[in-house]
Amino acid sequence: MSDPRISEIELDEATILWRNADIEQERRIAMFDLIEENTFKPARAFAAGHEGPYKLRLSVHEGRLQMDISDTGGNLVETLILGLGRFRRPVREYFAICDSYYQAVRKASAAEIETIDMARRGVHNEASEMLLEKLEGKIETDHATARRLFTLICVLHIRG
């Protein structure tokens, strides 16, 4: 029976050098939400008879995102490597606006927080669309899954 979704996700902890409590909370929420509901159908693995669910391991090597996709038994069924050059600006913007948001939550008015949050969602949505374009023809997914994956890509880019 076909079940094209992510059932487990892991980040390469060696890639992540540092993260504060706010970013750690973003990571936890993204991973929880991703496992709870996602659409993830890797084209080559699915065509080869691996119909999910999948375990996904994300890491960054030499500016490229490596997605190791395994079956539930832990057998690697596909590795996808994506260049992340187009994501440098959105990642920087996302971190900057998240920092503003976290500061605002602590001391700004509700209207200021809402304005910053709208901008944050805009950057996040734009980057998610870029990710969907990069995955086209490689992995079939939806916008919500791409948003959560972009959050995790950002976490992998933290350098302290």
Q: What would you note in describing this structure?
A:
The chain has 160 residues and is α+β, with helices and mostly antiparallel strands. The chain has one domain (6-156). It is 51% helix and 22% strand. It has helices at 21-36, 43-47, 88-107, 110-135, 143-156; strands spanning 6-11, 40-42, 54-61, 64-70, 76-83, 139-141. The chain has a four-stranded mixed beta sheet with strand order 1-3-4-5. It has a two-stranded antiparallel ribbon with strand order 2-6. The protein is elongated. The chain starts with 5 loop residues before the first strand and ends with a helix. The model has no long low-confidence stretch (mean pLDDT 90).
Provide a concise account of the structure shown:
51% of the residues lie in helices and 22% in strands.
List the helices and strands and how they pair.
Blueprint (H helix, E strand, L loop, with lengths): L5 E6 L9 H16 L3 E3 H5 L6 E8 L2 E7 L5 E8 L4 H20 L2 H26 L3 E3 L1 H14 L4
Parallel strand pairs: 1-3
Antiparallel strand pairs: 2-6, 3-4, 4-5
Helix pairs in contact: 1-5, 3-4, 4-5
